[in-house]
Amino acid sequence: MMLKQKLKNLSHLLPMSVTFKHLFKPPITIQYPEQRDVMKPRYRGRQRLDVKKCISCGSCARACPNATIEMKVVGIEEKKVKDRIIKKEKKHPEIYLGRCMFCGLCVEACPTGALTWDNEVIELAEYSREELFYPWWKLAGYEREPEQGGETQ
Ligand code: SF4
Ligand code: SF4
Q: 118 CA distance to ligand 1 centroid (A)?
């Protein structure tokens, strides 16, 4: 009975030993937001759009299982095919992040690499649902919508 009581009194030493073990090690936490960690290359922060590579195919929108992506018409493109000039709608994806589950299927489906993950984005919280809507120009990193469908910046 006495031994059991003594062991019970020493039971706090085991957790204390864990504390002491870490006392002289460098910290593994950082002073966020003043300090920021470098995210891993495969981290899915938020989709980023390269408008120069986007060919308006809509594969990203069709691949999305949550119907999160809509294609927005941003202008009319003219292409010369043989002797004819063909006019085609230029479209870019827009994403409502509130419905996104970050599965990555849209990025996988993009045939030109126009849609990629921006792994530097870590703060996605907003005060309203409306602010979770990302128009194409915001995905492309523009501050506002460019006037002519946007390769102006
Ligand atoms: S990551 Fe998945 S859910 Fe989000 S927009 Fe892309 S396909 Fe849709
Ligand atoms: S982002 Fe990629 S998949 Fe989506 S419309 Fe542009 S080229 Fe097609």
A: 14
**Reported pTM:** 0.80
Q: Is 104 in the pocket of ligand 1 (CB under 6 A)?
A: yes
The closest residue, in CA terms, to atom 2 on ligand 1 is 103
pLDDT in tens, 70-122: 999 999 988 888 889 999 899 999 999 999 999 999 999 999 999 999 998 98
Domain 46-139 in this protein, CATH class: alpha beta
The residue ranges of every structural domain in the chain are 46-139
- Closest Cα to atom 4 of ligand 2: 60
User: Residue 75: enclosing H or E segment and its boundaries?
Assistant: strand 69-81
Under a CB-based contact definition with an 8 Å cutoff, are residues 99 and 130 in contact? no
